[in-house]
Amino acid sequence: MKRPPGLDKLERARRLRREMTPQERLLWGHLRDRRLCGAKFRKQMWLAGYIADFACAEAKLVVEADGSQHADDAEYDAERERAFASLGWRTLRFWNNEITENLDGVLTVIANALPSPSQAASRPAFPLPYRERGKEASPPTNPSPYRGEGQPGPKGTAG
Questions:
Q1: First vs last Cα of the chain: how many Å apart?
Q2: Nearest to 92 by CA among 115, 153, 51, 84
Q3: In CATH, what number is assigned to the domain containing residue 23?
Q4: Would you say residue 1 lies in a domain?
Q5: 128: Cβ–Cβ under 8 A, 6 or more apart, which residues?
Q6: 3-class state of residue 139 by DSSP
Q7: DSSP string, 66-104
Q8: 150 in a domain, yes or no?
Q9: Residues spanned by the domain of 42
Q10: Residue 84, Cβ neighbours under 10 Å: how many?
């Protein structure tokens, strides 16, 4: 993830993380810490020159919580959505009243947009331990010492 260009935009992203709307805070409570389908979401993530409310990188999914100010700025929102899509990201938008009045429905829509657990399991997390990489992989030749193993002890003794 690239940092935003300029200190002012970085500060804006940080401020947005601190000062979430009540609906963003409510939604974040269900998205954080892999609480929804085990997917990792980030809040106020810098993406394609914009700040996305919530983003799941493994699913390339952006979730936007829109207040009434977005009704007047539909073209700007469409521009952001095109920028996200140009990088392969899908955008889900929810009005604040949807989040407040139908949180279960909103969470269901988000969950349905995430890859199924079987799809996620088919993509191994890297790096894998050497014994799980396949037969061609060999164990490390020089493992690092654990808690001083192999280090000289007191008066020159090992261990």
A1: 43
A2: 84
A3: 3.40.960.10
A4: no
A5: none
A6: coil
A7: E-GGGGS-HHHHHHHHHHHHHTT-EEEEEEHHHHHH-HH
A8: no
A9: 7-132
A10: 22
Residue 115 contacts by C-beta under 8 Å, 6 or more apart in sequence?
58, 59
Number of folded domains that form the chain: 1
More confident residue, 131 or 19: 19
Per the domain annotation, does 151 fall within a domain? no
Is-cis flag, bond preceding 115, omega within 30? no
pTM: 0.67
pLDDT tens digits for range 96-129: 999 999 999 999 999 999 998 655 555 544 454 5
Q: Are 27 and 66 in contact (CB under 8 A)?
A: no
Give the integer Cα–Cα distance in Å for 86 and 84: 5
Q: What is the pLDDT of residues 11-52, one digit of tens each?
A: 777 787 788 999 999 999 999 999 999 999 999 998 998 989
What is the H or E stretch that residue 12 is in?
helix 7-18
Residue 75 domain flag: yes
Q: Six-digit token pair at 100?
A: 């407040």
**At residue 55, does pLDDT exceed 60?**
yes
